[in-house]
């Protein structure tokens, strides 16, 4: 095999093409859902995020940026996270939409009257059914798909990359909507590093 076919540059190009393609699909498939997600997050008194593994890490990044905007944001599972309540929002991600802990949390949120926003690859999954008409479907391979058809990357990487970029785009849209400038956000950055 040629080094150009297995090198880092080749892999970066491949990842870039796959990410661009999947995000274009998300934009084209349901632009109304994208707007609805932005509105729901902006209007929520408190936002809670939850994902497992790398999906959870990606949503932690989103939580940080939403906090920089001044939103009241919590990462589910942290010791200081309060109980979710009516009118709060739970932002969850699960490629399969069947991750048991994520689905249970979404059921709890729905039961108390919170809004559920889901990012998943399966619009018919239990998680998607629990979201309040605010499901973002990412057409990426699940972590067990080894076919290479949806993505040639390993174990759900494309889905997780999409979560990071959807989170950053959500932050950017809400930031522009807020009319705050970067200097207003900066004081909210951690100073205990």
TrEMBL record:
Pfam families on file: SIS
GO molecular function terms attached to this record: 6-phospho-3-hexuloisomerase activity; carbohydrate derivative binding
Gene Ontology biological process: carbohydrate derivative metabolic process
Alphabetical keyword list: Isomerase
This enzyme's EC code(s): 5.3.1.27
SUPFAM superfamilies cross-referenced by the UniProt entry: SIS domain
Record domain SIS: where: 37-180
PROSITE patterns, per database record: SIS
NCBIfam families according to UniProt: RuMP_HxlB (TIGR03127)
Similarity field: Belongs to the SIS family. PHI subfamily.
Protein name in UniProt: 6-phospho-3-hexuloisomerase
Organism: Microbacterium sp. A8/3-1
Lineage: Bacteria, Bacillati, Actinomycetota, Actinomycetes, Micrococcales
């Amino acid at each position: 095999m040629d080094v150009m076919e297995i090198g880092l540059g080749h892999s970066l190009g491949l990842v870039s093409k796959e990410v661009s393609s999947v995000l274009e699909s998300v934009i084209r498939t349901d632009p109304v859902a994208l707007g609805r997600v932005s509105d729901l997050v902006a209007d929520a008194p408190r936002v809670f995020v939850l994902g497992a593994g790398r999906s959870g890490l990606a949503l932690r990044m989103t939580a940080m940026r939403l906090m920089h905007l001044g939103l009241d944001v919590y990462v589910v599972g942290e010791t200081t996270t309060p109980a979710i309540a009516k009118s709060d929002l739970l932002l969850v991600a699960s490629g399969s939409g069947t991750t048991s802990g994520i689905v249970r949390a979404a059921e709890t949120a729905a039961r108390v009257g919170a809004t559920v926003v889901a990012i998943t690859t399966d619009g018919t999954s239990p998680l998607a059914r629990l979201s309040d008409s605010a499901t973002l479907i990412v057409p990426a391979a699940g972590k067990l798909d080894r076919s290479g058809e949806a993505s040639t990357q390993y174990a759900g990487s494309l889905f997780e990359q999409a979560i990071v970029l959807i989170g950053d785009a959500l932050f950017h849209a809400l930031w522009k909507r807020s009319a705050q400038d970067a200097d207003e956000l900066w004081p909210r950055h951690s100073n205990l590093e």
